[in-house]
Amino acid sequence: MILHVVSVSGGKDSAATLLLAMSRFRRDRVVPIFCDTGNEHEAVYEYLDYLERALDIQIHRLRASFDDEIAAKRMFIARDQRQRRDKSGRRLRWSNKAKRRALAVLHPTGNPFLDLCLWKGRFPSRKAQFCTEELKTKPAVLFQLGLVDQGHTVVSWQGVRRDESPARANALKFERIGPRMFAFRPLVEWSAAQVFDHCAQAGIQPNPLYLQGCSRVGCMPCINVGKDELRQISARWPEHVERIAQWELLVGQACKRGFSTMLSDGHEAADRREIFADLNIYARVEWAKTSRGGKQYDLLADLIEPTACASAYGLCE
Ligand code: SF4
Q1: Which of 265, 233, 260, 230 is nearest to 248 (CA)?
Q2: Ligand 1 pocket, 224 CB below 6 A?
Q3: How far apart, in whole angstroms, are the C-alpha atoms of residue 183 and residue 173?
Q4: Is the Cβ atom of 218 under 6 angstroms away from ligand 1?
Q5: How does pLDDT run across 34-90, given as a tens digit for each residue?
Q6: Average pLDDT, the chain
Q7: Separation between Cα atoms, residue 177 and residue 184, nearest integer Å
Q8: Residues 244-297: pLDDT tens digits?
Q9: Does residue 8 have its Cβ closer than 6 Å to ligand 1?
Q10: Whose C-alpha lies nearest to ligand 1, atom 6?
């Protein structure tokens, strides 16, 4: 049987893609999936529930697990007796103090994003964006391979548009990605406005996050969050900033150097306390309130009205 697996993110493009798939194929051939990073805004989960009710379809929730990796890392740290030193002469071996600190927190929490960072001993970054691969791509591919193993042919529907970013400018509409696996991107030539129109015509509401200043729906925050969006997040959802602050402390304990920050930008200081002081999430939020060079506070920044619509798509018009 040919199954149409639709990757649903909680955003507009994937909602439109799901609508297209359901308009063309029988319900039992359409398999929506959602890769839950664990770093989502609660509105995303509520929106998935809404889509399920509105479209009378089940969305399969996929969550990566790093239990085995964390167990292996615990074993490695506990038994680490390396005598070698790195290029700068520092010992590679975990010190006993660092071992005690890391082993105290290195336990699976059940949250995919946090467990991934605990395992890696760091947050993902622009240069090492392993979150997408580990939290989204791998769970989706494993799910689809499972369907192929059951004898199905899988068409993976992806809500990608070429005008989203330079990286997607050459996205193909259809391609073979493996034995009995194909990718189909029906929206490659669509604009954002067409996507919203398509959902509206089908009677499907957009995710409310678009009405509250988000230009994209995904991790809250994404490691690639921009200055304005971070400012919006801190004004509207300070509890998510607080959550990231707690994660930074936990991940910092799990890593050898003793600190880790989510929004790093290549700090050059040698003193780790200085780096953490400058780059922790609260410091980044303060930076996000500054204008241009980052020194001068934008006096309007504190006047963001949390209930006002700041949609980048003008959805309140
Ligand atoms: S949305 Fe951002 S933080 Fe989340 S998986 Fe993608 S790149 Fe990583």
Answers
A1: 260
A2: yes
A3: 8
A4: yes
A5: 999 999 999 999 999 999 999 999 999 999 999 999 999 999 999 999 898 888 888
A6: 90
A7: 10
A8: 999 999 999 999 989 899 997 666 666 777 888 889 999 999 999 987 655 555
A9: no
A10: 132
Question: All domains of the chain, ordered by start, with CATH?
Answer: 2-64+128-212 (3.40.50.620), 67-107 (no CATH), 227-303 (no CATH)
Return the biggest CA–CA distance within the chain: 66
Q: Is the CB of 220 under 6 A from ligand 1?
A: no
Burial 192-210 (b: 16+ CB within 10 A, else e): beebbebbeebebebbbbb
Per-residue CA distances from 191 to 8, 199, 204 (Å): 18, 13, 17
The finding on whether 125 has its CB within 6 A of some atom of ligand 1 is: no
Strands 2-7 and 181-184, by their bridges, are unpaired
Nearest CA to ligand 1 atom 8: 131
What's the whole-model pTM score?
0.90
Nearest CA owner, ligand 1 atom 2: 222
